[in-house]
Amino acid sequence: MFLILGAIIFSALYFLIIKPAAEELESAKVSALQVVQELSSLGTDQAVSDASTFTTQIKEADSKSEVQAILTEVQTALAREQKRVELLDLARQAYRGTFYSGESEEGKTVLSELQSLKDTLISDINSKTSLSQLEAYESELDSKATTAWRNALTRVLNSIEDNEVFLERKNSIPYSERMSKENALQRIENYGWEELRKIRFVKPTVEVPVIDTLRRSPTVREGAMVKIYLYDYSTGELTLLTPNATVSHVLYRDTDMQVGGVSLWENIKTLVASGQVAGFAGFGESAVSSAIDANILSYDISVIYVVEVSDLTGEEILKYEFYQSGTKDVVLVPLA
Known about the structure:
By secondary structure, the protein is of the alpha+beta class. The chain has three domains: 2-89; 98-202, no CATH class; 206-334, no CATH class. The chain is built from ten helices and twelve strands. The protein has helices spanning 2-40, 45-60, 64-95, 112-127, 131-158, 181-190, 193-196, 264-273, 283-293, 311-323, and strands at residues 100-101, 109-110, 164-169, 175-180, 199-202, 206-213, 225-232, 237-252, 258-259, 262-263, 302-309, 328-334. A five-stranded antiparallel β-sheet has the order 6-11-8-7-12. A hairpin with a 2-residue loop joins strand 9 (258-259) and strand 10 (262-263). Helix 1 (2-40) packs antiparallel against helix 2 (45-60), helix 3 (64-95) packs parallel to helix 5 and helix 4 packs antiparallel against helix 5. The longest helix has 39 residues, at 2-40. It is elongated and about 110 Å long. The relative contact order is 0.09.
């Protein structure tokens, strides 16, 4: 009788108290371990190490309250490591730019200043042991990154022998701007790392032709400074490629320049073949200038303007002048 009564009481205790408590403990452990897995998935050394420790502690916990206490520590570690990952991602942006990098990347130049920046930022971030330390480091990261980029670009700029350089920026449509070294140094000092990582300085390197007519640019002459725009036929938008390119040569079509009914090209060939000095230097420009002075001009005269630009801008101009002329047009606007 007593055995039966004891069994009944035990069964009641088991099903009403012991089993629900055990299930509740197991459920708490499963939930906590899911948070631990989230921590581990962040992949930092500290996150992986903490996750291993917390996993063991949770599995060995004897009560729900003990699991809850461990979970509080897990959530603290999770917030800390999420911030660490955020800063490591920011650091990766800081030492990797559009043209330069602190590590080997295809199409980019490795600079020693950025290599040192990479090592410093990663070491600093990984050494922090609390969320507050990591949050406080963000401003220090900005300062160190800006200093490194300024030093790196200043060294690149000083390695260019020319007194004038092009600032290049690779947007969806590349942009370049010609400036003196002094102005370039001022740009470097005025920019933070987030802008400096997007640019580079190069010497004026290429001359490319822009085919046009006098109708659109009658006053552009050799030596002139021009803005170069890209006009998109599909959208009707003008995009500035460079605000200050130099026109190094202006070439007119030989059939538009005739002397005595014969093209200037044929006249020159005849004179040169006979050993004479052609004597037509500046003829085209003089003819056009005289016509403009007389307020008379043949608008359909074809012109090739040879412009001195940076590599990126030169590639863009060639692309639309010779291969995709049906989609976009290159437009020159003389500076006053």
